[in-house]
């Protein structure tokens, strides 16, 4: 089996990445278990940091100061995987720690997967709460029971980090869309999995992850617009069954923001989205 692992960095030294540290520690284990493996580090930051990883075998570093987001980096790793005949692509955030337990669970189960099983995801824990995978039939998935471990042909979604993806399936969907260059790319991906009548395996293994929390007092208006544009586009074009409750959510959120957020551009943009959807 051949595995390519992709980690995307932005303004972070590779040696300071929890994910890279944990993966490099597992390289001796990979040598025993995989026919071939590669750690692809795609750096969107302004400074070339290739020297941090120089001389380490099975590490492929790319510097791209254009900072085009996740989808561009993931597509690079996808095309590289096709060209070099990798079977699986593993997506990883810089702040998720990879465990030997999860790798072993994948190795012990992947060979028995049918071609219809195109993804395996861990249970991701942040602050003692399982934040992924979650159900997709509600606006507030963290208030609902989590999908059980095992095979799922019913719609669920998961964060990018920790997701094993079958490269042949990515070819079927023409790689990662540019419609969601950063935010909601994971939602789009798992929507495509079920649109194509494929299945996802939820692992028993749990991974620790530092989940980013949206802070309206610290976020810039440009970053907020980017997030809200992706979010609204996803619900409008891919989850129209939840569009009505999503608009209600936007209205309530905008009214709350008008009271508690100093930057009035934030709540004005929220309400603009509500009235234009």
How many extended strands? 11
Please identify which CATH superfamily of the largest domain we are dealing with. Answer: Spore Coat Polysaccharide Biosynthesis Protein SpsA, Chain A
**N-to-C terminal Cα separation, in Å?**
46 Å
Q: Please outline the major beta sheet.
A: 9 strands, mixed
User: Which percent range fits the helix content?
Assistant: 25-40%
Low-confidence stretches: none
**Regarding CATH, which class of the largest domain?**
Alpha Beta
Report the structural category: alpha/beta
Number of helices: 9
Summarize the structure.
The protein has two domains: 2-208, Spore Coat Polysaccharide Biosynthesis Protein SpsA, Chain A (Alpha-Beta Complex), CATH 3.90.550; 221-276, no CATH class.
What does this structure look like?
- The chain has 277 residues and is of the alpha/beta class.
- It contains 9 helices and 11 strands.
- Strand 5 and strand 6 form a beta hairpin.
- Helix 7 packs parallel to helix 9 (264-276) and helix 8 packs antiparallel against helix 9.
- It starts with a strand and ends with a helix.
- The mean pLDDT is 95.
- It comes from Carnobacterium divergens.
- InterPro entries: Glyco_trans_2-like (IPR001173), Nucleotide-diphossugar_trans (IPR029044).
Short key terms for the protein model shown above:
single chain, Nucleotide-diphossugar_trans, alpha/beta, 277 residues, 9-stranded mixed β-sheet, Spore Coat Polysaccharide Biosynthesis Protein SpsA, Chain A, 38% helix, Glycosyltransferase 2-like domain-containing protein, 2 domains, Glyco_trans_2-like
